Amino acid sequence: MEIEQKLLVIRSLEKSIRDAEVKRDKSIEFYRRCIAQAHDVFRKDTADDRFQLENLMRSLQRYYDENPPTKGKSLKFAGGKFGYSKRTPKFFFDGTPAAADNAALLEFVKNHHAQFVRTKEFVDWDNFKKNLDFDGDNVILTDTGEIIPEMKAQKLPDKFTVKTTDSPLKKALDLETLRILNEEDERDEDTD
Q1: pLDDT number for residue 188
Q2: Among the listed residues 174, 125, 188, 173, the one whose alpha carbon sits nearest the alpha carbon of residue 151
Q3: H-assigned helices in the chain
Q4: pTM of the entire structure?
Q5: Distance, CA of 165 to CA of 185 (rounded, Å)
Q6: Are residues 139 and 107 in the same domain?
Q7: Phi, psi of 98 (to 5 degrees)
Q8: pLDDT tens digits, residue range 155-187?
Q9: DSSP symbols for 120-156
């Protein structure tokens, strides 16, 4: 009886290993296709890329308009999210864009609406934290050795990140994700 149970466990483990290998192989194939598509995208000329991107944007916008989200303002997919975002109007002062650093606007507001001018006082945190160290829970100002009792430090583990700097690769990954989703939708329609 014990041998039969052990055999069942061994068979179960062998099946788990086979399933993991199949999953690994599918992942490898997916990324190979992504890399191949990235190379294809990289080789295409800019006009063709722009045309494909515009078509993709129109398709996503049409899909969004036909299937608005039930929560929030955007729809999520494996490569990101899409939707509408509110835009504020652009303001101009004396023919130049109105912004906080517009000298002419600042002078006008100072003279006529001083309540909208503010002087902001803040801690230069980037430089201040360079002068901090910690020992356990104590935060120490390294210049003076002073312990700051109101401040605590929490050591955080390193964070794993992935950033794509090669936009054709990122675009290819996103396009491949959309293609896979479309294939899945088509398969679902075929089975109905």
Answers
A1: 57
A2: 125
A3: 2-43, 46-66, 103-112, 125-130, 167-191
A4: 0.33
A5: 30
A6: no
A7: -80, 125
A8: 777 766 655 555 555 666 566 566 665 665 566
A9: -----HHHHHHTEEEETTEEEETTTTEE-TT------
